[in-house]
Amino acid sequence: MSTYTCVQCTQNSECNTGAGEVCLNNQCTTCVVQTWTFSNTATGRTGTIQTWTVPSDGTYRITAYGAQGAGTQGGKGVKMAGSFNLAQSTVINILVGQMGSSYTEPGEYADRYADGGGGGTFVVKQGATTVNDIYVIAGGGGGSRSTSSNNRHAVTAASGKDGVGGEYEYDPNYLKGGTSGSGGNRSRMSAGGGGFNGNGVDATNAVGGLSFLNGGTGGTANNIGYGGFGGGGGAHTSGGSSWGSSCGGGGGYSGGGGGHTVGGGGGSYNNGTNQENIGGNRSGHGYVEITRVCE
User: Fold this and answer.
1) What is the strand order of the sheet 113-115 is part of?
2) Residue 141: partners with Cβ closer than 8 Å, 6 or more residues away
3) Distance between CA atoms of 227 and 164, rounded to whole angstroms?
4) Beta strands across the sheet bearing 27-29
5) pLDDT tens per residue, range 264-275
6) Where along the chain do its domains lie?
7) Residue-wise pLDDT tens digits, 125-157
8) What is the pTM of this model?
């Protein structure tokens, strides 16, 4: 815990520097506000899981943003923030979600496209296997070029959103977002986003995003619409087909479902206190900020 004295000060030399005190806000204290930031390590479907070691016992505020899905109306990532009491030397793994990629058919089929899902952002204990090892997970948005459904945006709830549109709508399992950490389901040519422990479901010529526990790689789609790192689902297009466009689901705690018109946004998770969770909040790649809190 943070330790304070009653000594007022104007400079560090007036404090007990031998005990690690500094002058902060005109008061001697051993607590110094510090902030560490983490950005995407690459672009596309692959990246690097970063590590951070807690420097000292104390309260830390962790804020994570998921990545946006691909497409002109790609779903936005979610913001998840919470406070945590962390012990010195605890090692934390951080996967910052990355945007998916878009593809448009050339020539007469230029109205056909494939938009990959955005990756979720994961902040968890090293060696995480269960929800108790999660600090925060912020879902990524689904791929989309349509404003017809807000399902494209990532959500603060644990379950991923359903994809929208597709010839398999008669099957109740198709298009569905994942639940309880699973990956999202598929449409014909758009794959689901990966969850914490379950991969997104593969579609025709499109591969679902991998779960965080399986590395978080985004899905492929015949080199067309990649899902972003962090479990974004891949999306494929097939020229003259009447179902030629597709949108991958976003990655997250539970993956979003793939859809013909809109890929579903990923779900999220927060084990912190004093939470601030905002759905559909982030454009571009994901981001993480960790701040030492002086209380």
Assistant:
1) 102-104, 113-115, 246-247
2) 66, 67, 68, 69, 74, 75, 76, 77, 117, 118, 152, 153, 154, 250, 263, 265, 266, 280, 282
3) 17
4) 4-8, 27-29, 22-24
5) 999 999 999 999
6) 4-32, 36-295
7) 999 999 999 999 999 999 999 898 999 999 999
8) 0.90
